Amino acid sequence: MGTVNALTLLECEDIAWFRDDPALPAAARGAAAALARRIGLDSHRASEVALAVTEAATNLQRHAVDGALLLRVLRTENSAAVEFVTVDAGPGMAHVADALSDGMSTGGTLGIGLGAVARLADVFDIHSTPGKGTVVAAQFWPRNRRDPLTPAHTNAIAAGLTRPISGESVCGDAWAVRIDGGYPSASMAGSAATPAVLAILCDGLGHGPLAARASAAAIDAFRRTSAGDPEAILREVHGALRGTRGGAVAVARIEPARGRVLLCGIGNVSGFVIGPGTRKSLLSAPGIVGHQMRTLRTFEQPLVPGSALVLHSDGLTERWSTDTLPGLFHRSPTVIAGQLLREAAVRRDDAGIVVVKGAW
Predict the structure, then answer these.
(1) pLDDT for 55-65, tens place per residue?
(2) What is the pLDDT of residue 193?
(3) Looking at the structure, do residues 113 and 176 belong to the same domain, yes or no?
(4) Which pLDDT value is given to residue 147?
(5) Which pLDDT value is given to residue 277?
(6) Are the C-beta atoms of residues 13 and 75 closer than 8 Å to each other?
(7) Is residue 1 part of a domain?
(8) 185 and 194 Cβ atoms separated by less than 8 Å
């Protein structure tokens, strides 16, 4: 495999999910405007964010089944953006391009149409399957930058979503991704090292604030450690979770230059390497990180061109297939995560998923 260039990551902070109810558009609009102002977007950009979110929320309320909208903050080292993600369970669109055409707005919305929402956004992505549902993701960065949007803003290789169990406002699942030093490819003597990508997903035991505290401790340990080996990272996370409820944790390492994915996990976190028409599992061992952790073992799968890594908690069932979602793996990691969340998440548990997909 060739060298992977411009691996970029965005820090994500999930703020709130808005479920389908009569107050959805007003509640989402107010929260979006307040969030935009909080991160420093100017008044005009904040108004554009509020308008786009209101259109998306009204579409969900009027036309979608089991619709929900997530608001969150994205950050680079020097700037921040508002992102919204909408997820619904149908009816889906047979012709997405038509829905993005000028003047195409279904009755009951603001009338600006999905195409106008896409133009207001700096980054926009959509995937829809008739009879299944639709996921839309849109990012709104500051417009008062002196420099244009960079790949760090627009081409992030990883994204995740977390959603709390019904009745809770905080989620006990958490994820993070970081770039590691990487290894030179054996077939590229004298070339620069290809960076490796490290990903973690933690499902804190139970639900609510105490589960969230355990997951936060795991993510903090993952970000602080200089270790690059999944087993070494998991041992540090194990120590960090002592004194908490503990949780199920999986740590993955993607090595594009070596063409492989490594995973070391304890507890019910599912790992898969997904490619066109393929889904290969990465196993985890029983136990609770922070309490009972047996001898660690790392599992390996090949990383073929065009494949992606998916980690998710047991808040998603494993009974999903990409065969029923044509074209999904041509979309962004955020939209992939959203469709799999829609397809497989259960309401009786916290749900967390992270997708890593680069140009390997």
Answers:
(1) 999 999 888 99
(2) 58
(3) no
(4) 55
(5) 79
(6) yes
(7) no
(8) yes
All residues at 6 or more sequence positions from 206 whose CB lies less than 8 Å from its CB, including other chains: 172, 245
Residues 170 and 225 in one domain: yes
* pLDDT on residue 237: 98
pLDDT tens sequence across 12-57: 989 999 987 888 999 999 999 999 999 999 999 999 999 999 999 9
Residue 5: its pLDDT value, please?
42
- In angstroms, the CA 157 to CA 8 distance is 6
- pLDDT tens digits for 197-224? 999 999 999 999 999 999 999 999 999 9
Tokens of 162: 């977390």
Q: Which of 299, 319, 317 is nearest to 309 (CA)?
A: 299
The count of domains in the chain is 2
Q: Dihedral of the CA atoms 29, 30, 35, 38 (nearest 10)? A: 140
Range of the domain at 237: 158-356
Distances (CA, A) of 261 to 92, 97, 285, 301, 308: 33, 35, 17, 5, 10
Same domain, 130 and 162: no
Identify whether residues 186 and 114 lie together within a single domain.
no
Q: What is the pLDDT of residues 147-172, one digit of tens each?
A: 567 666 667 899 999 999 998 999 99
Same domain, 66 and 115: yes
Instruction: Please tell me the distance from the alpha carbon of residue 72 to that of residue 88, in angstroms, as a whole number.
Output: 18
User: What one-letter code names the amino acid at 288?
Assistant: I
- Residue 179 placed within a domain: yes
Q: Residue 261 corresponds to which amino acid?
A: V
Q: Are residues 130 and 164 in the same domain?
A: no
* 3-state secondary structure at position 248: strand
pTM reported for the whole predicted model? 0.91
Are 334 and 228 in a shared domain?
Answer: yes
Q: Which residue has the tokens 């600006």?
A: 112
96, 127, 153 - which closes a domain: 153
Residue 238: is its pLDDT beyond 80? yes
What secondary structure letter does DSSP report for 79? -
Which one of 120, 153, 186 terminates a domain?
A: 153
Residues 15 and 113 in one domain: yes
CA of 234: how far to CAs of 81, 150, 205, 296, 325, in Å?
31, 33, 16, 9, 33
Residue 3 lies in a domain: no
